[in-house]
Amino acid sequence: MTILLRCSFIICLLNLLLLGRASAINPVGTSNDNQDYFDLANNTNDFLSVGLVSVPGASCSGAWIGDDLVLTARHCGGGPNSITFTFPNGQAYGSINHWTSNLAANVNDLAIVQLAETPNVPANYISGKIRPNNDGVAGQLGTLVGYSTIGRSAGHNTITAASNTGETQAIRSNASAFELGAILNSGDSGGPLFVQEDDGSFSIVGVAAVLFNNFDIWANPVAYYEQIEFGRQTNHFGFFQDGEPVPQLMGDTNRDLILDHRDVQNLMTGWKQDHSGLTATQAWLRGDFDGNHTTDLKDVFTLHQALQSNGLSFPFEALTVPEPSGMCVILIGIALLPRVRQPS
Length: 344
Fold this sequence. Notes:
- The chain is α+β, with helices and mostly antiparallel strands.
- The chain has eight helices and twelve strands.
- The protein has helices at residues 2-19, 34-42, 225-234, 238-242, 261-270, 280-285, 297-308, 324-336, and strands spanning 50-55, 58-64, 69-72, 84-86, 92-100, 111-115, 141-148, 151-162, 168-171, 192-196, 202-212, 215-219.
- The protein is elongated and about 70 Å long.
- The relative contact order is 0.11.
- The model is unreliable at 1-33, 173-182 and 329-344 (pLDDT under 50).
């Protein structure tokens, strides 16, 4: 009798504890305990890169991908100076730039936000890394981390399709129930989809975009990997925004992988011209290497330095003679250019 009473008491206690939590959908390969999803989002160092993206009148999710850059969804909106990114520990940073990709398809529902400064976050905050390709991703368990209506949490589901050029899809456990485990809830937009690599680290293979026909669909940052990395190196995200192939050689205006007089001629065509309204490729062809919508002295020095590595130099005498102060800038710039020793 005593044993039965004790068992009944334990069962009642368990029922009371469970009533304190919302019922959860059992996602593929995980338990149905909601607390697991909160713990997963907040206690995994790789996921601490995921923060709250705040825009006027709305909020989304996003991932800090190192330096001063955040990856999120284009449809979240926001202007260059109107976005705030807040880390899990409450550190918040404003923005100074916002580049968006072409929204012709869900695969392109991507945006890069440049913060006002490089975040100074705790050492255990590991910046997100975009996977260079999606080879072997289909069939893996994906983990979405985001700020949905129930708060910062994570969910699992199996990735059913993942290409290097198309969308990344994961089937929902239950498309009609917006709870933990049935991922892509309101507010998750822009949140990253991670897969775990063989070394235990996590890589980003998707950005939360839309729910369609019982599938969660993510935009595919892998398709823009080269454009994003080129933008990181040059602070020029025009090729990401236009979805065009990035140049393989700095200073190579016509992208023929040869640095010669034709590159000089192309730059001279664009010298001091306004390139607003041109695509990144069109502006690059005219010598605008830094994406500031004109071909100026900085671009000339960039080409000169590139030509030096090929045993050539830029014919500065071909430029329109500037005012004396401008000539001083040219002479100082030439003097400061590093000398590249040519092989004997």
